[in-house]
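Why does residue order matter? Because the sequence determines the fold. Keep that principle in mind as you read this record.
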Amino acid sequence: MPWEIVNLAAIWLPWVELVGGVFLIAGIWVRAASLLFFLLCTIFVAGISYALKRGILLHCGCFSTDVADFPRTWQSVWQEVLLLFGCLWLWVTTLFVDRESNL
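Structure:
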């Protein structure tokens, strides 16, 4: 990510995730929220994979800024891929529910 937008992304990304999560839990705009999380997971998979392929050690920073914390690994990529498929599954299943409710 370009250095100029890192702080901006660090400010708005948690809020986007929080609002999307509230929408999913409340059952409001479930298809839109699942699509949002699918896109975010795709970006995370691409970003983590790119960094790992280049040999860059990533520390999440979500729960700690300690550099001794465990860095991201290829296992992290597979965890994100599982979340990605979960978002896709939710989007597809709600598509069928929406069609049945319109009949």
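The CA atoms of residues 19 and 43 lie 18 Å apart.
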